[in-house]
Structure formats: C-alpha cells, structure tokens
Amino acid sequence: MSDLSPYGDNLLIDGLGPIPNRQDMGRRLCHLPSCPPNIASVPYSVRLHWLMMLRHLHLPRREELRVAESLDVAIRQSYHQRNPTEPGTWSKLCREPLVQPAFSLPAGAVSLVGNSGTGKTEAVTRILRSYPQQLIRHETFPKMKTEHWQVAWLSICVPPSGRTIDLARALMEGWQNAVRAAGGGLENRFDATLARERQSGHKMLDEWRQVACSHFLGLLHLDEIQNLFKLLTLEQRRKRQTSTSGKRGVSNPWAGLPIVEDHALKWILSVANEWGMALCLSGTPDGIRALQSRSSTGQRISTIGHHAFKCFSATDKEFTEVFFPHLIRFQYVANPIEANDELVRTLMRLTAGIPRMLIALWIAAHRTAFERNDDTLRLQDFDQAASSFLAPAMPAIAALNSGDPRLIERFEDLWPDNFDVWEAVAQPA
C-alpha cells in the first residue's frame, strides 16, 4: 500500500491494487476494436463479422470516469471499517441484528440513472472488471486456520418480478457463478437451499448475507433497480398527472410508485446501513426517481455519488471531439462516407443521441450498404437502416426527439434529458 494512502495496512484493500487516477482508468476502460486492412479485398460475408466487432467499441465518457472514482471510494471505504485484523470487526459481522450495534458509519452507496442505452450497465461492468481480481485468495487470514477467499464485488440484475424470493435466488446464483473459479465447494454453497421445494425469501436473503459478510464482499451492484416497483400503465400515469396538475412542487409522475415487496427494498438498504458492504444501484429514471421520492431513501442511495447518464447532443464536445471522430474511422467499405454536419444531424435525428443506438445505426447502415453491393456508404443508408433493421426502436426515438412529455410518457422507462420539463407539465394551462 502506498505511503500516500489513507487506509494503512489492510489486506482487504491490498488486493484491489493501487488507487487509480482518472487517466489510468480512462485507458483501462477504453476499447477500440480492430479493423482489417485493405477492406476492398474482404468478402462482404466476412466483413459483416468484422462489422459486428464494433459493438465492443467503448469510449469512456467523463461521467463514467466519475462513476469509477465513486465506486473505488465506496469499496475501499467499506473495507476500511471492516479491517479483519481489528477484533471489533468480527463481533460486528457475527452479531445478531437489532441486538448488537452495527458499524459506526454506514457503507457508501452510489446510484446511476439514465435512459436505456446510455451506458450505465456497461460502465459499471467495465469499471468493476478493471480491478485485478474479483476473487482474492488469502493463504493466511485472521481468525482462519486455512486459506480464505475474499469477493471484491458482485453484480446482478434485480429480477423482473421484484419479489424477495426471486431476488434471493438471483443473489445466490450470481454468487455461485462468481466464486466458481475458487472451487473448494464454494460454488455449491447454496445448492441445497436453491433445491428446496418450499423456500422463504426472507431466510434466503439472511443466509446469503451471512456468506457475503464472511467472505468480505466489498460492493454489491444491483442493476435494473426499477424492477422493484410496479410500473404504472399509461392510463394510470395520465390520471396521476391530471390529478396533480397545478399542485405546487409536484413534478414527478413516478413519485410514490408502489413497490412489489417492501422487505426487498428494506433489506437492500440494510446491506449498506448495517453490514458494511458498499452498494451501487443503477436503473432507468422511473425506478431511481421512485427511490428518490422518499427523502431518507434518496439520501442513502447516493452517499458517495449520484450519476446521470445522458444522451449525446450535436453540440456535445464528448460527441463531436471524441465519440464521432472515432466512430467515423470504422468504415467497412472501399468508399467511405465523409464526416460532415449533415451526417451528424442524420445520426442525431435517427438515434436521439443514445450511444447504444448510434452504434446500432452505424452497423445497420453498413448492412444496408452491403446489400447494394457497390462498396459505398451513403447518407440514405442510415435512413433506410432506421426504417428496416431498427424500426421497432423508432417510435421511442421520435418521442425523445420531440421533447413532448405527452409522447415520451408512452414509454414507461423514458425520461427527457431536461428533467425540469415535467415541472411545466404539472403547471395549470
């Protein structure tokens, strides 16, 4: 551990490697796929497979680097107060809930919000995988007679049902998949529980928590957090918006969404509040806004940082100076299209600046060009690709481009980049 580190000697933190700076993290996260030389000599059937490699293109944005800093702070801080060489750590990990005091300071939490396709999940996944190891083997460990495995992080999706029992199953299955490389029976730890005909979600969550605590899980990432809530139908959202129209301060049509099972949310918050594990919650605006509708919960899920992933705009420097100049290089035709303002406007019109859609449109336009068989990429290929390959996504893109809340509200997981637009809707005409 560096002499500059504030953490001193802590074997849990040592396995994470040195604290990264933003430049190093940017290099770790960036990925540029390779492109074959002399593309004109490559058959279209083979080019298609090279083209699909573009799906792995990753250029970390400024917000992603901020997320990396937040997650690194959260995980190291969580280990700081769980130093296994300190006797108090073990008494707190083995304590009975509501009987003995928890850690003096709750572990940190990080929240990420953004429309589908803006890169939240990809960002967290790449950041967590940038650590040297997810599983850290300790040949000797305090209070242990044999080797011990530390699990630095775990990432799962909240099941679509939002039920406690399904969340418990996902955690157990995710844990066993993560520790499979360790062997020694760890990968089968929850087999008996998962095989039971009659299961209790509450008991399963407690069992998982005991195992996670004993293996010093550093950070738990729960993606698709909106699945905890019962989303309103379009008619219900419109009724709620009509009933709150004109009421001062009411600008969130998803505030107070009913939760599927209250115990699931309470248990998730207890992971950080009582058991010292850092927490990262990510999801679309409907779920995160529902969490934030209660002040105490909103505070708890963002003690380390709250990060909003937004769509690109035509004037966004991260698009004009970073993303677009790299994207334009990946052309799989002998006669590439010219980079100009008209192309930028077309890309924005057909994708609303959503990073995932920009990549998808670029790939689809090439596939359209391949059909023409003249080895040229043209502007009209993008419109044709949008109306064919990407047709199912176009209504949502049109809604976002319009900026009209009445069109956007048709899609339960969308939210305009300008969140304040809802304030205007809530005001009387």
From TrEMBL:
InterPro entries: AAA_22, P-loop_NTPase. It comes from the Bacteria. Residues 107-285 form the ORC1/DEAH AAA+ ATPase domain. It holds the Pfam family AAA_22. This is AAA family ATPase. It comes from Uliginosibacterium flavum.
